[in-house]
Each structure stands twice: as structure tokens, then as C-alpha cells.
Write a structure and sequence with these properties.
single chain; 195 residues; mainly alpha; Endonuclease III, domain 1; two-stranded parallel ribbon; 2 strands; 2% strand; globular
């Protein structure tokens, strides 16, 4: 059955578990949405394998990805992170987690939850795609470009259209499992319980 799955999922056990249990499934919890947002911004220019390998270490280093704690990070904490082998040690990316935590919390204050805000872009209904090969899956879409622009206006960093589209895929706003992949239907069924 694994040979029918999305090809990227078969590179490692971590990716297979992530693909089978998380990617493309609707995610509504604000804490997990913030975690995925940070992980996707950290991925820019790197492989998802690298991010998954560092996910547990980053969760530890970044105070369980709690935006309320991260928004208070000072230069000392940033330097500590830049010297921590468990995390992605890119100064701009590390600093962006602080501005992204602040922007995230402002959205929570304004809209009641980040989940409500982000899912409103698709009317709280995941987009079901019908790609049969990886070459048919886009790097980004016009909607991802719009969300990227909106998030940048709200103070987010490292949040270009490609990162936003990867985020949309990871939280199930888009079900980009190939139609041949057995998980495609599982993710589709999970989406029917949203409304």
C-alpha cells in the first residue's frame, strides 16, 4: 500500500507517520496551528525531513511553541536559541518567531481565534484537489498569495506564498494527497465533520 502513497512520504518513517496522521487533515487548534506556522517558516530553503527531525527539539527549545511566552523573548533568549543545536539556527528565522507570536496573538484578540481567522479564507471548508502526480501539485496558489499578503500586513515574517501554501496543506485547508494515495479519502472524510 505504501507504494501508492504520496512519493515524498516514503523517504523516512517520520515523514510516513506525519503524512498518514497529520498532513492534509483539518487542524483547528490554535496551539497546533501556531506550531505548524513556526515549523513552516523554519522550513524555507530546507527539506521537510530536516524540520521533522528537529521538531521535538524545537518544541522543547521554544517553550512548547507557546506564543505568549515566545512574544517576550529578548536578545539573551535569541542568542541562546542561536547556540542550540536542537533548532534551526538562522538569526532571521529565530527573530521572526517573536514577531510572528505577537502578530498571531493580535489576530486571536481581534478574531477570537487564529483558527477562525485562517479558516475563513476557505469558508471553513477544506479545498479537495484531484492531482494524480506530484507535478500537478502547485508550489502556491492565488489564494496563498492573498493570505501571504494579508499576514505580512499583520506583521508576520518569513511568510511568502510558498510557505503559506505549505501551511495550508499541513493544516488540511487543502487536501493535496494524490488521488491514488489511500490517505486522500481519509483526509476528505475528516473534512466533512468540520461544519
Amino acid at each position: 500500500m505504501d507504494e501508492l502513497k504520496c512519493p515524498w512520504a516514503t523517504r523516512s518513517e517520520l515523514e510516513l507517520v506525519y503524512h498518514d496522521e497529520q498532513w492534509g487533515f483539518p487542524l483547528l487548534d490554535d496551539d497546533l496551528l501556531f506550531e505548524m506556522l513556526i515549523l513552516e517558516t523554519m522550513q524555507a530553503g530546507l527539506s521537510w525531513t530536516t524540520i521533522l527531525n528537529k521538531r521535538a527539539g524545537m518544541k522543547l527549545a521554544y517553550d512548547n511553541f507557546d506564543p505568549k511566552i515566545i512574544q517576550e523573548y529578548d536578545d539573551e533568549k535569541i542568542n541562546e536559541l542561536l547556540n542550540n543545536e536542537l533548532v534551526i539556527r538562522n538569526k532571521l528565522k529565530v527573530k521572526s518567531t517573536v514577531s510572528n507570536a505577537k502578530a498571531f496573538l493580535k489576530i486571536v484578540d481581534e478574531y477570537g481565534s487564529f483558527s477562525h481567522f485562517i479558516w475563513s479564507y476557505v469558508d471553513h471548508t477544506p479545498i479537495q484537489t484531484t492531482a494524480s502526480t506530484m507535478s500537478e501539485v502547485p508550489n502556491f496558489t492565488p489564494l496563498a498569495e492573498k493570505i501571504s499578503k494579508d499576514l505580512k500586513k499583520k506583521g508576520f515574517k518569513f511568510i511568502g506564498p510558498t510557505t503559506v501554501y505549505a501551511f495550508m496543506q499541513s493544516i488540511g485547508m487543502v487536501n493535496d494527497h494524490l488521488t491514488s494515495c489511500p490517505i486522500h479519502e481519509h483526509a476528505k472524510k475528516a473534512a466533512t465533520h468540520l461544519k
